[in-house]
């Protein structure tokens, strides 16, 4: 049995405390909870580290969340979470996780509620991330109602790249409920569009003020190209501003989530605009055999229910066809053809999937691993003679 009696007991016991905590710390509110005793597929956008709790407030029964296997990569905490809520694990950055699908089917047969944040990753820019088309097939295969939910105000309150919570407004709601009879005969493209439209949330226009100190701190985790001088690696954050060390561009991240610069040439209104500009620049650029990016990192291999295995400390360098780690005692070279995928984990870590091995890299709190992932997917698609329609987020 996947479902255990203790899961509902723990949920009911924890709910009032989590409700009070989220209200006090995040100013979070939610719709009146509903009951789904026969099970359902619940999907939502993904903006904060607390989204699973916001979803849990909307339903009276236990939800079985699909989560990244990285969450369980801890000797004691991983096993405890498995016992406590028995989540459905999936490898980030890998498509077609057969075991995760089988586990979803198992939960559905036991009339459990499955909750999936179908972007697979918290948004970095505030806009919807890539949504795998396979969610349509899963929704039809489960034979359960489809419930579309929204979390509004999450990006303003707790942006993934940031550190401090901003005081504004956050609300979780049930947007639409579709019976299985409604979705089973839908055209797949029609159902996919319904899902995309349903989970799309525009936090830039949801609420007008998110108050907090050092609002721009750690924005260099996702901003890596100056739009004025074009330099990379020159953006840094200080207080409410991001600044370019090369040309002196100074941009304020305002309480409205809008950008205000000291240079008239700067035309971006939101972080999303700047983010999209970076993708356009790196996607259109030609690269030679020289090193493109380089950063000092620690290298580990995460292990399920165990401590990470330390590989070494050194320098990670990206070339147009490979990723190289020059460490004190050894050298690791990963050709793009070997790498199955890359993904960001949390705020500053990056996982690299090579067959059955996962390498995790991180170091400085303000390291930008995003640029490596962006360029990996762009260059790998270019080598295959394809358009890049997925950049890992």
Topology:
Elements: H1 5-26, E1 28-30, E2 41-44, H2 51-56, E3 63-68, H3 77-85, E4 88-90, H4 98-109, E5 113-117, H5 134-142, E6 146-152, H6 154-157, E7 170-178, H7 180-184, H8 188-199, E8 235-238, E9 241-244, E10 250-253, E11 259-261, H9 271-284, E12 293-303, E13 306-318, E14 322-327, E15 331-335, E16 341-345, E17 349-354, E18 357-362, H10 370-383
Parallel strand pairs: 1-7, 2-5, 2-6, 3-4, 3-5
Antiparallel strand pairs: 6-7, 8-9, 9-10, 10-11, 12-13, 12-18, 13-14, 14-15, 16-17, 17-18
Rg calc: 21 Å
Mean pLDDT: 93
Q: How many β strands by DSSP?
A: 18
Series of H and E elements? HEEHEHEHEHEHEHHEEEEHEEEEEEEH
Question: In one word, what is the shape?
Answer: globular
Largest sheet: 7 strands, mixed
Uncertain residue segments: none
State the strand order across the main sheet. Answer: 1-7-6-2-5-3-4
Oligomer: single chain
End-to-end distance: 33 Å
Helix content bin: 25-40%
Q: Please report the number of helical segments.
A: 10
Overall SS class: alpha/beta
**In percent, how much strand structure appears in the residues?**
25-35%
